[in-house]
Amino acid sequence: MTPLGKMSSVWLTSVSVFLLLLLQQPPVDGELFTALADMEELLETEAVLITNLDNYVQAQEEKLMQLRQKMHEYRREHAEAARDVSAYLSNPVNAFLLTKRLTTDWRYVENLMTYEVGKEFLENVTAYRSVLKFPSDEDLNGAAVALMRLQDTYNLDTASLARGMLNGVQYSTELSAGDCFELGRQSYLNGDYYHTVLWMREAMDRLTGEVNRTATKEDVLEYLAFSTFKQGNIQTALSMTEELLELVPDHERAVSNKAYYVKELQKEAQQKILRGDDGSEEVPVDTTTKIQKEATPHVYDTNERKLYEQLCRGEQQPPIELRSQLVCRYTTNSSPFLRIGPLKLEEAYLRPYIVIYHDVMSDREIERIKQYARPRFRRATVQNYKTGELEFANYRISKSAWLKDAEDEMIRTISQRVEDMTGLTMETAEELQVVNYGIGGHYEPHFDFARREERNAFKSLGTGNRIATVLFYMSDVTQGGATVFPSLHLALWPRKGTAAFWFNLHASGRGDYATRHAACPVLTGTKWVSNKWIHERGQEFRRPCGLQLDHSAEEF
Predict the structure, then answer these.
(1) Which of 238, 279, 403, 479 has the fewest CB atoms nearer than 10 Å to its CB?
(2) Residue 345, number of CB atoms within 10 A of its CB
(3) Domain 317-535 is in which class?
(4) How confident is the model at residue 28 (pLDDT cuts 50, 70, 90)?
(5) Any idea where the domains of the chain sit in the sequence?
(6) Which of 495, 494, 512 is nearest to 555 (CA)?
(7) How far apart are CA 196 and CA 228, in angstroms?
(8) Using an 8 Å Cβ cutoff, are 186 and 140 in contact?
(9) Residue 452 CB partners (closer than 8 Å, separation 6+)
């Protein structure tokens, strides 16, 4: 047995038992950043790694303690011998002990010195990777992009965010210069030079106050200079590169970049002269001509983007003239069952008619739905508007699961409740979709219904277009996470147990473009929702077709 054999065997036994328990769990997938429900399990992974690291440190300390004891023992005996060498060696016992110390005892010390304490613990980490959730490089990048999204949407100051402050509330510990550098580096890898500059500057500012440096000035300057150049500021990029070369004179990329920047500045100066070479004032470059790219349903203009972000921040709302007409009431929707217990209805908008039902999903139902959904979560997809195929998209960051009515009486009850709420049949409705949003999780402006050009959408279902949407809020959200309708200047804020309902189609069957909506990024907290998409087929007598395009409260 090795010098630390007994001690290590005890730890390894406990680790083996733990691993046997872990191996009973199914393997896991990546893309952890797309759902906070998965991110929670990373804390379990971290707890296991901390325990493993603690055991490793203890083993190292035990090894050093044994070596220190031997060193003190040798030093004591050597000091005694040095006082009178002849007298010490004339004692046959001392002669034997000296010989023993330099043979068997020293071999023990050599074995102890060469013993690799970390081997077993590294093997533990390798074993953990097959049974525990570990984030990937994609998760790291996704988490960084999420922070950038939150920063832009909620106008978060870089320095405040680095201090762990979100909208004036201190939530977490501060970021180090190394953390800020990594955020900048991830932005750089995505070709996002704007955020690269923001976070590299913050890293530089934090470096000056760090005693134990978590990043190097040279690395920060390299990324900062090139990203500044990519933003069009060649002169500043050159100055930063020259500063870098003062620190590292033989930096190959910096030497090459400096020569390139100087050449570009000379070219820029020459072009400036040529634009006004007829003696007139400098002729400005034409910036009015824009090339229109191919339009898609998921590309929105600057005004909509601005409205979307303002709504997410709570800076916009419908005009007072409209809000003054909204009411709250109890409703039965002509349902015999609801005569016993009418629903609480709050009007959110009149044309199109958007309402919020209160207290329509209990805590018990919410927990049961979460329990069913968690093991089935997959990254949420969107339908390609050309092919009809499902695919991942950066404008929708969440994970979803689909639950059938036949799986549980409680799910059937919820479907029946939706039918009572809407007056529409659930026979052709899609399954209950459960969604958990990840870090900065969002869904940018989109339509729930298929436009005329989307001929392949819902073709496989054979149930027509999505006539209406019911959206259940299954959690309160501390900050952010609103459902917003940019063209209506309307924001619906998540409140646990409520449900929003609106028609996606006019009574004529044509899509209502005013229902274009989005899910704002979750700033703090976690957001759980579930929804039922209701289709046209089977609604012929429940919501008859009409010649008028608009639909209003009169239909309820």
Answers:
(1) 279
(2) 20
(3) mainly beta
(4) very low
(5) 36-130, 137-269, 317-535
(6) 512
(7) 9
(8) yes
(9) 511
Could you give the CA distance from residue 545 to residue 197 in angstroms, rounded to a whole number?
55
Can you tell me the mean pLDDT for 473-497? 96
User: Which residues is 345 bridged to in the sheet?
Assistant: 329, 357
CA distance 500 to 532: 11
Crossing angle of the two packed helices 217-230 and 177-189, in degrees rounded to 10 = 40
CA distance 151 to 362: 34
Q: Which tokens go with 49?
A: 């790694």
Is the link from the previous residue into 336 a cis peptide, with omega within 30 of 0?
A: no
Question: What is residue 180's three-state secondary structure?
Answer: helix
Q: Which two tokens stand for residue 549?
A: 């395009």
- The candidate with the shortest Cα–Cα distance to 202, out of 144, 239, 159, 232, is 159
Mean per-residue pLDDT over the chain, rounded:
85
Closest CA to 395 of 382, 412, 410, 414: 382
DSSP 8-state secondary structure symbol assigned to residue 511: B
Main-chain phi, psi angles of 281, to 5 degrees: -65, 165
Edge-to-edge strands of the sheet including 483-485? Answer: 443-446, 517-519, 483-485, 490-492
135-176 confidence digits (pLDDT tens): 888 888 888 998 999 999 999 999 999 998 888 888 778 899
Largest CA distance in the chain: 121
Residue 118: band (very low, low, confident or very high) from pLDDT cuts 50, 70, 90: confident
436's CB contacts (< 8 A; 6+ apart) are 35, 36, 37, 373, 377, 398, 399, 400, 526, 527, 528
The Cα-based distances of 250 to 222, 224, 261 in angstroms read 13, 18, 17
The contacts of residue 359 (CB under 8 Å, 6+ apart) are: 344, 497, 498
Distances (CA, A) of 422 to 6, 332, 416, 542: 69, 10, 10, 10
User: Looking at the chain, how many residues does it have?
Assistant: 556
> Between these two residues, 404 and 442, which has the higher pLDDT value?
404
Q: Which amino acid is at 535?
A: H
Retrieve residue 252's tokens: 């190959």
What CATH number labels 137-269?
1.25.40.10
Structure tokens at 218: 């040279």
- Rounded to whole angstroms, how far apart are CA atoms 224 and 198? 9
Enter the tokens of residue 180.
């800020």
Give the model confidence (pLDDT) of 363-391 as tens digits: 999 999 999 999 998 876 655 555 555 56
Tell me which amino acid residue 215 is: A
Question: For 377, phi and psi rounded to 5 degrees?
Answer: -55, 130
